[in-house]
Amino acid sequence: MAFVPAYSAFASRVDRMRLVFGVTAFFVANIVLFALAVHAGVDHVGVFYYVWVGLFSCRSSRSSGRTRTTSTPRTPAAASFPSSPSA
Is the pLDDT of residue 9 over 50? Predict the structure, then answer.
C-alpha cells in the first residue's frame, strides 16, 4: 500500500493540470492497448480487462475516502446488463 503515499508526494510537487493530463493519458493508453490486444486476438483479454477495471475501481473508491452507497454500475458496459431478473 505504498502507492498512495508515493502518489500523494508526487502529486503535491506536480502542476495539477499536468497531473490530470498525465493520469488521463495513462488510462487512455491502457484502453488503446486493450483494444489492440483484442484486435490481435490475444487470449483472455476480457479477463485482464475485468481485473484492470476492478483494480481501478477499488483504488479510486479508496482514494476518495467515500463509500459507495448506490447500486448504479461503474462502467458503461455494466449498465447494459439488467440488475435483477425480470419476472
Answer: yes
